[in-house]
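Lab notebook, bench 4. The sequencing result for the construct came back, and we need a structural model before the next group meeting so we can plan mutations. Quick request posted to the team channel:

Model the 3D structure of this chain.
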Amino acid sequence: MTDSTPLLEVNNLAVEFDTYGGIVKAVRGISFSVAAGKTLGIVGESGCGKSVSVQSIMGLIPMPPGRITSGTAMFAGQDLLVSKMRNGHDIRGADIGMIFQDPMTSLNPTMSIGSQIAETLEVHRGYTAKQAFARAIELLDQTRIPEAAKRARQYPFEFSGGMLQRAMIAMAIACEPEILIADEPTTALDVTIQAQILDLMRDLQRETGMALILITHDLGVIARMADDVVVMYAGQAVEKGSVDDIFYRSAHPYTMGLRAAMPTNTRGDHHKLTPIDGSPPDLFHPPAGCGYCARCPSSMNICVRANPEPFHLSEHHFARCWQHHPEIPVKADGLHYLTGND
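Done. Here's the predicted structure in token form:
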């Protein structure tokens, strides 16, 4: 398998939820892929559909009220949206591991940390209880938890937030997965611990060659970790490209808005943070046009009426924005505009 061959390829994924208020169209046709040894970052503000996208692939959304209305998620020649079993074994936890957003609520408070890691190995790899617990201690040591043998016999309430996240990582990599999905892995951690967790994941990736899908709202984390980036807004991918494309050749106004709201650590730089005014659209009734147009400083008449298709700026870089339509004239400032009543 070459580095560019996708391990996981998701195409046109759409997810809805039935609620008392109506149907929420949480994910509206997102596509992405990730190759071995590479990191895909999925970034966007809360409610844009990042977590729902990967949870639906993993079969973790309740059905009902949730349902997948379209799409495929191809992994090792099979569609995960149809079946999550390979050779009679569940792919989840074995071939694809996942780190959840809040380890305190994701771990069982009545079981020791070591037992929870060992259970994964017993179920997916056929280890005996003794073998599995011994391997759990090795995994805790690998994730840099001191006194691993002692800690393996302790319970989640005895761990700090950073240690709980390390324990979650140990559980996720126990079966040596080909893909690791990390859903907001540094949420609620202080800056020093965040850096340690990110370094740990990067080191583990280098050692094992696994692919990493990193979900976050933090562009700083994306800049540090990702090879490729998907920017999500209102359930859609509004821009996708390499990390350099996203940071140095931003092509969607939403991406530019996120960058403008990002602090800098450059000494002597008195850069003023510019927030994005307004609120995301109501996904009970998604707009007919671009989901971002109500907040966009460069919106045009057509943005309200029609949702743009992705416009490819290079082979691997696209933006879902009418400004890149070839028939829209270019002004001196480099932005594209429709004229007249268009």
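The chain has a mean pLDDT of 86.
Will bring this to the meeting.
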